[in-house]
Amino acid sequence: MSDRTNEFDTDIESDNKSFVSHLIELRKRIFKALACIFLFLLVLMPFSDQLYLLLAEPLLKSLPDTSSMIATQVASPFLAPFKLTLFVAFFISVPYVFYQVWAFVAPGLYKEERQLVLPLMVSTSLLFYLGVSFAYFAVFPLVFSFFTGIVPTGVTVMTDISQYLDFVLKLFFAFGLAFEVPVATYLLIRSGLVSIEALSAKRPYIIVGAFSLGMLLTPPDIISQVMLAVPMWLLFEVGIYLCRLTLVDDENEKSKDEAKSP
Predict the structure, then answer these.
(1) Long-range contacts of 69-76 (CB under 8 A, 24+ apart)
(2) For residues 219 and 166, is the Cβ–Cβ distance under 8 A?
(3) Handedness of CA 205, 209, 211, 212 (dihedral sign)
(4) How many of the other CB atoms lie within 10 Å of CB of 128?
(5) 235, 117, 223, 240: which is closest to 176 by C-alpha?
(6) How many H-runs (helices) and E-runs (strands) does the chain carry?
(7) CA Rg, the chain, in Å?
(8) Predicted TM-score (pTM) of this structure
(9) Span 125-147, pLDDT tens digits
(10) CA–CA separation, 104 vs 23, rounded Å?
(11) Using one digit for the tens of pLDDT, what is the confidence trace for 42-70?
(12) How many CA atoms lie within 13 A of 144 on its CB side?
């Protein structure tokens, strides 16, 4: 009885040590990610005004010559550029942050899973960048032209810099996350939670869901909603297509291995 008790206590102690070591490793990875963001923040702080001017360019091009942006709060001229600079620092650090996530989970993965995770990390970063770029270069000009074009007569558009920043950051994150649809689709099918045929059969529901998310994640204008929903649907189709290609290749490799084995 005492031997069993000692074995049980030993197992608990080893589990506790393993848990503590995982917490220490997690803290180290989080610290490295935050240190990278902080480093880029320090480098970019002298250029915070130029960054905000670049961000405001799509709106400024749509405003009449008699209009301008304003600051309605005392600290807004400092806080708005600082908040933007922090976002840009995170934006640049995304690949390194994802690498820290991968480095944390990699020891617990099988060899095949490790080979899969790294390409997914790279594609996730690229798709996030693509989503933010699409919002800035394609969506913003249309949305701001629409908003400034429907202003009632006698009303002068004077946009607050803090509210403008909150507006565009919301769109940045919405489009950045929406462009991760191919990765999410691939993971669902690859993990076996759903088959390609079952997911393809639910295409009408996916389209309705994309437009519903577009309505929830974007401002209440039809332009930004459609320009978020349509890419989500198309990226879903891309994810299905990539899954068909990769799964066929895997099946071919398995069949070759089985043919070679005696």
Answers:
(1) 69/158, 69/159, 69/160, 69/161, 69/164, 70/158, 70/159, 70/160, 70/161, 71/160, 71/161, 71/162, 72/160, 72/162, 73/162, 76/160, 76/161, 76/162
(2) no
(3) positive
(4) 23
(5) 235
(6) 10, 0
(7) 24
(8) 0.78
(9) 899 999 999 999 988 888 888 88
(10) 10
(11) 999 999 999 999 999 998 888 887 788 88
(12) 24
Nearest residue to 211 via CA among 241, 231, 183: 231
Closest-CA residue to 214 (of 203, 205, 224, 225): 225
Encoding tokens for residue 49? 């005004």
With helix as H, strand as E and coil as C, how does 108-128 read? HCCHHHHHHHHHHHHHHHHHH
Instruction: Look at residue 64 and give its three-state secondary structure.
Output: coil
Reference 157, options 146, 165, 168; nearest CA is: 146
Residue with tokens 């270069």: 137
* 94 touches 128 (CB < 8 A): yes
Nearest to 124 by CA among 199, 87, 196, 176: 176
